[in-house]
């Protein structure tokens, strides 16, 4: 039995294996509402054997969206389309989480396929996508061509806290097993935590305690609103990767505070405060390049972690779990390439039983694929006819 396929118990939730599908915005919602596309998209990961499926960054307020296509949970009308996805995934044995987010100064961004830059006049003309006023701890734009945010007032900060709580309550009504707070990638909470983006002179700035105060207040509110028996995750950028930014030592100290606040898992990404997020940057240094962050947080803050970033090979994923470097591995783009990645990993690691190799596949497929497996095995024993290629993509 490969460690990657051992179950993980978090509070009253048992995750069937250590493979999570990482939160990935699909930029395909209308006014925050999940569509049939989302149902099909997420459903594939449930059928594909993932232990945990984390629904993409979901805005707690309309102005907290990254783009016009973000999912939202600021209204009761968002609950049922998400509940439909939850029901489908649970029927396939997956655990389901939702990542709650406020985009802060990184709002008003184009969908990647519309340019991946700040929304401009052309987006307004072509698609009627107007910009909205944005807020951040300090009035510093994300980049030269980006909108300058206004500094959040205490009233704004209280309203946003309330919005996170309301979204948690709706996530509960939708049936989610896990809520994750997005405190990474330069969005609102991360921008409070980094000395580069927080130049305030009040109690929410300056020292480590000051910079992390607001995120911890939000976490406290969310934890109080989320059922005690269900786990809560926080995604962090383990380090900013920019001169003068947050460091891994900050993240370890933050993780200790999160643990004390009742958080169960730290989801360790990096970057995103300025320029590209390291997690999706094209020049990421190597396979599994963020696993060392998860390892450091796990060992130094004594809390469960999730590792993410270019984990594409089953052997690497399994070793990360077996060696105790992390508790969960999150698969992002590789799962877009292959939604059946967990099932394929099971075969690659020799977990599947050769007499019944498709036992973990949806029952609707397994019987047929087992029969096909035997047919292909006998075909393999005889040489292929001249000019014909043997079957590919088989076990
Ligand atoms: C299409 C896409 C959308 C993403 N959206 C989110 C998101 O909603 N929340 C988040 O925390 N990270 C998001 N990310 C980052 C991924 O969760 C992940 O950390 C990153 O892609 C690195 O993992 P990978 O190399 O396995 O893709 C997104 C990445 C991609 C490719």
Overview of this protein structure:
The chain is of the alpha/beta class. The protein folds into two domains: 349 residues, Aldolase class I (TIM Barrel); 39 residues, no CATH class. It is 36% helix and 14% strand. The protein has an eight-stranded parallel β-barrel, surrounded by seven helices. A two-stranded antiparallel ribbon has the order 1-2. The chain has a two-stranded parallel sheet with strand order 7-8. Strand 10, helix 7 and strand 11 form a beta-alpha-beta unit. Helix 1 packs parallel to helix 2, helix 2 crosses helix 4 and helix 7 crosses helix 8. The longest helix is centred in the middle third of the chain and has 21 residues. It starts with 7 loop residues before the first strand and ends in a 14-residue tail after the last helix. Bound molecules: flavin mononucleotide. Flavin mononucleotide binds next to strand 4 and helix 10.
């Amino acid at each position: 039995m490969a460690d990657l396929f051992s179950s993980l118990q978090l509070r009253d939730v048992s995750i069937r294996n250590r493979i999570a599908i990482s939160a990935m915005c699909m930029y395909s919602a209308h006014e925050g509402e999940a569509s049939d596309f989302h149902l099909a998209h997420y459903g594939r990961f449930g059928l594909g054997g993932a232990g945990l499926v984390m629904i993409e960054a979901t805005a707690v307020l309309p102005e907290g969206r990254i783009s016009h296509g973000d999912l939202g949970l600021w209204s009761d009308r968002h609950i049922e389309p998400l509940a439909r996805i939850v029901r489908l995934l649970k029927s396939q044995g997956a655990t389901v989480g939702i990542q709650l987010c406020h985009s802060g100064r990184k709002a008003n961004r184009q969908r990647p396929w519309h340019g991946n830059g700040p929304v401009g006049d052309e987006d307004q003309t072509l698609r009627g996508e107007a910009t909205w006023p944005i807020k951040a701890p300090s009035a510093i734009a994300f980049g030269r061509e980006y909108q300058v945010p206004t500094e959040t007032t205490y009233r704004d900060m209280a309203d946003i806290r309330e919005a996170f709580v309301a979204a948690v309550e709706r996530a509960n009504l939708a049936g989610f097993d896990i809520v994750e707070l997005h405190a990474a990638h330069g969005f609102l909470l991360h921008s409070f935590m980094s000395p580069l983006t927080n130049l305030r002179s009040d109690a929410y700035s300056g020292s480590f305690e000051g910079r992390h105060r607001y995120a911890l207040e939000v976490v406290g509110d969310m934890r109080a609103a989320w059922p005690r028996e269900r786990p809560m995750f926080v995604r962090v950028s383990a380090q900013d990767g920019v001169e003068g930014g947050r460091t891994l030592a900050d993240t370890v100290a933050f993780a200790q505070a999160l643990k004390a606040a009742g958080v169960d898992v730290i989801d360790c990404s990096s970057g995103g405060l300025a320029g590209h997020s390291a997690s999706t940057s094209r020049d990421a240094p190597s396979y599994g390049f963020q696993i060392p962050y998860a390892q450091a947080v796990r060992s130094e803050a004594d809390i469960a972690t999730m590792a993410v970033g270019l984990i594409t090979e089953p052997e690497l994923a399994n070793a990360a779990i077996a060696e105790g470097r992390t508790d969960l591995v999150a698969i992002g783009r590789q799962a877009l390439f292959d939604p059946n990645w967990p099932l394929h990993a099971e075969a690659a690691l020799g977990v599947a039983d050769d007499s019944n190799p498709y036992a973990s596949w949806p029952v609707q497929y397994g019987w047929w694929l087992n029969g096909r497996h035997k047919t292909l095995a006998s075909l393999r024993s005889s040489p292929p006819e001249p000019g014909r290629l043997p079957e590919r993509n088989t076990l």
